[in-house]
Write a structure and sequence with these properties.
Radius of gyration: 17 Å
Number of helices: 7
CATH architecture of the largest domain: 3-Layer(aba) Sandwich
Cofactor: [2Fe-2S] cluster
Number of domains: 2
Catalytic activity: a quinone + NADH + 5 H(+)(in) = a quinol + NAD(+) + 4 H(+)(out)
Largest sheet: 4 strands, mixed
Strand order of the largest sheet: 2-1-3-4
GO molecular function: 2 iron, 2 sulfur cluster binding; active transmembrane transporter activity; inorganic cation transmembrane transporter activity; metal ion binding; monoatomic cation transmembrane transporter activity; NADH dehydrogenase activity
Organism: endosymbiont of Bathymodiolus septemdierum str. Myojin knoll
Bound molecules: FE2/S2 (inorganic) cluster
Number of strands: 4
Distance between the termini: 24 Å
Structural class: alpha+beta
CATH superfamily of the largest domain: Glutaredoxin
Strand content: 5-15%
CATH topology of the largest domain: Glutaredoxin
Shape: elongated
Keywords: 2Fe-2S, Iron, Iron-sulfur, Metal-binding, NAD, Oxidoreductase, Translocase
């Protein structure tokens, strides 16, 4: 279930912690396995992470179900995590959420028909100075406008990572 490539990535995180505290790498391990599992974690994937880290399954499941950056059903290739907290809201996030929904023909939480995108409203991502903003993968996109969003989506549709 966990590829050798993913195991190497997880091992690098485990090495950052004192011996015997490999469970501290659980968040990154879940993220790595999620990325290899069509961007979501099912029960088997969560258990595989727990087994690999030699921690109880419930410990991995607690983390996987507590944080919103883990998905538990297919969500498409790119999750657009758009902030709608105070700074972003005051700088037009609601209008941009409506724009995204219209442009992609989805409501937040839905996956586009082509399986490329889903839009998720999230709380503050700590980039208030660049409001309004969203996150796709590990990348933050700040000071968003409709024009910027058009370019970002076009690049991703064209295969940009
Ligand atoms: S309020 Fe949007 S990043 Fe902080």
């Amino acid at each position: 279930m966990i590829s050798n490539k993913a195991k190497k990535q997880i091992d690098a995180w485990v090495a950052k912690y004192p011996t015997g505290n490999q469970g501290s790498a659980v968040m990154e391990a879940l993220k790595i396995v999620q990325a290899e599992n069509d961007n979501y974690l099912n029960a088997d994937a969560i258990q595989a992470v727990a087994d690999y880290l030699d921690i109880p399954g419930i410990a991995a499941a607690e983390v996987a179900t507590f944080y919103e950056n883990y998905n538990h059903k297919p969500v498409g290739k790119h999750t657009i995590r758009i902030c709608h907290n105070i700074s972003c809201m005051l700088n037009g996030a609601d209008d941009l959420i409506s724009y995204l929904e219209e442009k992609l023909n989805v409501k937040t939480g839905e996956v586009t028909k082509n399986g490329l995108f889903n839009v998720k409203k999230v709380e503050c991502l700590g980039a208030c100075v660049g409001a309004p903003m969203f996150q796709i993968g590990d990348q933050y996109y700040e000071n968003l406008t409709e024009k910027k969003i058009d370019k970002i989506l076009a690049d991703l549709k064209a295969g940009a990572e």
